[in-house]
């Protein structure tokens, strides 16, 4: 009895200390993680600009970059060919890789909260397949209704339609299970991919069909500065909107009933974010093709370092996704040189085993039950 009496105050004191020190510790961990990832992104970008069929020393890379930005007025000690390679060939590609990786990671983070499923991500849920079908339809049929924005607009429409279809198919009796959601996504993705293949096989544009078929594997080759501005804008606006809704994403983790009790209109909030995520996904797919598993892996990895609060997970996942896809593209260019491997193939080789591990982990934890 005495031990219980004396132990209780000690336990309360320990709990009180944890509550007071945890926020500060969490902020420090977040700051350190963001600082490390930012440094890794700078190193990754330098490597992406330096590595290739023509190797450029890192110091010379930064000299070329600062000279191109007008921050270095010294006489260049590099050839014009190297400057063209770094500024006009590799820099847009590296930037698009960072933007696409960050965007896919952010989209995956938000999707996992919206549908309350740790396996959710654009590729697995068929969203990327819908965006691909919309984009390819514009290319094959030569639709130019919205001018240069016709491709992203069609990709957005396809992504939104696929996401709504998967969600409606998986939701039965007001509940969704992990297996039903993933199976619905896989089935609808298979149908959309079959339609895309049929479209390519029956088109009269043979050379164009081969180029589009390579694009459907996901890749950053052939990127120029005109390709980058729209995905970068979509990422900035989308990530900013999601950061503003981070508290509501946190509420959804507790379930729809709890979120409604806290004053969140779940149906309206979910509908708005479905449109936003489909828009960003469509723009990214239109620029880089369907690249899978980045949105699955990054949120789970960064939660190990910063916890589950979306105010911390979203920026951390964005940086992690950018670093990952830049290095995946470097590997795609160099592993089988002079042949270039589609970057989507490499992300699938990394993400497939991760997906299987995640399923086994959740099965052991018994998280296969319904999701409201």
From TrEMBL:
Main location: membrane
Biased composition (Low complexity): 1-12
Entry annotated with the keyword Transmembrane helix: yes
Any GO BP annotation: siderophore-iron import into cell
Cellular localization per UniProt: Cell membrane
Alphabetically ordered keywords of this record: Cell membrane, Membrane, Transmembrane, Transmembrane helix, Transport
UniProt keyword Amino-acid biosynthesis, yes or no: no
Transmembrane residue ranges: 30-51, 94-115, 122-143, 149-169, 181-201, 273-296, 341-359
Entry GO terms, CC: plasma membrane
InterPro entries: ABC_BtuC-like, ABC_transptr_permease_BtuC
GO molecular function, one term: transmembrane transporter activity
Lipid bilayer topology: Multi-pass membrane protein
Domain of life: Bacteria
Chain spans, region Disordered: 1-23
Family the UniProt entry places it in: Belongs to the binding-protein-dependent transport system permease family. FecCD subfamily.
Record protein name field: ABC transporter permease
Source organism (scientific name): Streptomyces fumanus
């Amino acid at each position: 009895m005495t031990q219980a009496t004396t132990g209780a105050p000690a336990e309360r004191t320990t709990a009180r200390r944890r509550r007071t020190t945890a926020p500060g510790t969490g902020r420090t961990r977040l700051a350190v993680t963001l600082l490390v990832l930012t440094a890794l992104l700078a190193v990754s970008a330098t490597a992406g600009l330096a590595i290739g069929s023509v190797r450029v020393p890192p110091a010379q890379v930064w000299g070329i970059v600062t000279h191109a930005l007008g921050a270095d007025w010294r006489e260049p000690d590099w050839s014009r060919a190297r400057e063209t390679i770094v500024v006009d060939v590799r820099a847009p590609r590296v930037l698009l890789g960072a933007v696409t990786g960050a965007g896919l990671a952010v989209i995956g983070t938000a999707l996992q909260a919206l549908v309350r499923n740790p396996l959710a991500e654009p590729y697995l849920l068929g969203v990327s397949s819908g965006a691909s079908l919309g984009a390819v339809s514009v290319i094959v049929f030569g639709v130019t209704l919205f001018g240069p924005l016709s491709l992203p607009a069609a990709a957005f429409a396809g992504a939104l339609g696929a996401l709504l279809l998967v969600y409606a198919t998986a939701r039965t009796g007001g509940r969704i299970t992990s297996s039903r959601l993933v199976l619905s996504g896989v089935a609808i993705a298979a149908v959309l991919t079959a339609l895309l293949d049929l479209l390519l096989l029956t088109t009269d544009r043979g050379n164009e069909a081969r180029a589009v078929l390579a694009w459907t594997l996901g890749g950053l080759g052939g990127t120029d500065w005109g390709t980058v501005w729209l995905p970068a804008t979509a990422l900035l606006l989308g990530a900013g909107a999601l950061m503003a809704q981070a508290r509501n994403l946190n509420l959804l983790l507790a379930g729809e009933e709890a979120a409604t009790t806290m004053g969140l209109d779940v149906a309206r909030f979910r509908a708005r974010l479905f449109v936003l995520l489909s828009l960003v996904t469509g723009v990214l797919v239109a620029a880089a093709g369907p690249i899978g598993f980045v949105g699955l892996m990054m949120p789970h990895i960064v939660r190990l370092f910063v916890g589950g609060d979306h105010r911390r997970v979203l920026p951390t996942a964005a940086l992690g996704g950018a670093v990952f896809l830049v290095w995946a593209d470097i590997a795609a260019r160099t592993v089988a040189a002079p042949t270039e491997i589609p970057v989507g193939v490499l992300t699938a080789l990394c993400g497939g085993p991760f997906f299987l591990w995640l399923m086994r982990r959740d099965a052991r934890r018994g998280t296969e039950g319904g999701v409201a």
